[in-house]
């Protein structure tokens, strides 16, 4: 492992110029985007921390592999290369490619869920829960309580709460649990990892009750790194070996290749049970494409086969997680409330603590993300009440976590960029008292955070007393 943890373990051989904007241009851009950072144009974002999904820089080896893509409609060599890589590095004998992670989530939800059944998981994820509900299941959050507290320090804040899982089994009956879905790491909790011991313990409960144990393995390489750094007995084990051991406990996984396979598009379903593979192939031809390409080009399969190994490299992971931690520590030093410990793919600002004067129904995280953009051209994303959507009866879900996510793409930005981001957030922190909430002007009925539009709440009439003028100036 490199001793200079924060220096990049790669050099740059292609560059993409960035567009710098003025504050006036950004104010206009955020208005045109309905105060939703998802609706901003990429050219208007100087540093784009919207997501780490599909935004990675590919390596020379991946680009070379793309040239070898076999674009045959059926039976392409590129499919065999992906299949072999999944078997070698993840240990699953069967793979079904899909256009991205949610394609795999759709298939597995349709295959394993009988309407009326239940699916426990270590915190919800937007697309994951949406597909489970679409298939007729009820989602149950069985993550440990610490995960819902931004300041609770726990080395494995993504762990499944075994008592909550047992209580659910007692309540609904094991035969009414379609499967348990364990995310590694847990995106919505702040990129928090799950320990090997917890994975083993969940496996024991599943074995005891005959429950299928699935993984949302989107960030499994980052989870493996945290196990190496934090769990006793793994300090000298390569991350690749840790990842394989983690996955050995699962019956299968859904993968968004756009994260820990270092590609711009792609995903897959992998499993041990041939019957599930057969059902997946029946569905994949309907929704994605032939079972040997699953909605992807041969070159995409090649890039994913190479990327999944690169993401398990110890030096790559030390730099990757180190860069996220670098940004997080700069904000912590400035006294800014962030989710701790710093997770694997992003720094999450605690919008409730950042804007205590904005109630959750006035969408504090959505508002804060818009302010950070206007300040600096840094694009972040809301992970709070807007992302949480509405209940089946039409009420807002009120998640305990009301967060803004600064998500770091893999191998894309330098630590100098991280300094720009930190300075921008600090500047917004210094003028936080003047930041107002937002309200919906258009609310999309599905996954509303992607396309809804907002406007600032009107300034409430200020009480008449000394200093009103000053307060009024602050409110603008
Ligand atoms: C991104 C993501 C997904 C969905 O994957 P897509 O490739 O975006 O469809 C599922 N689960 C988690 C935890 C994710 O972060």
From TrEMBL:
InterPro entries referenced in this protein's UniProt entry, alphabetically = ArAA_b-elim_lyase/Thr_aldolase (IPR001597), Beta-eliminating_lyase (IPR011166), PyrdxlP-dep_Trfase (IPR015424), PyrdxlP-dep_Trfase_major (IPR015421), PyrdxlP-dep_Trfase_small (IPR015422), Tyr_phenol_ly (IPR013441)
- N6-(pyridoxal phosphate)lysine: which positions carry it? 259
Query: What EC designation does it have?
Result: 4.1.99.2
**Reactions accelerated catalytically:** L-tyrosine + H2O = phenol + pyruvate + NH4(+)
Which parts form a coiled-coil structure per UniProt? none
UniProt-listed CDD domains: Tnase_like (cd00617)
Write out the entry's keywords from A to Z.
Answer: Lyase, Pyridoxal phosphate
Gene Ontology MF terms: tyrosine phenol-lyase activity
Cofactor names from the entry are:
pyridoxal 5'-phosphate
Where the record annotates domain Aromatic amino acid beta-eliminating lyase/threonine aldolase, the positions are 48-423
Any matching Pfam family = Beta_elim_lyase
Which HAMAP family did the record assign? Tyr_phenol_lyase
What the record says about family reads: Belongs to the beta-eliminating lyase family.
Q: What is this protein called?
A: Tyrosine phenol-lyase
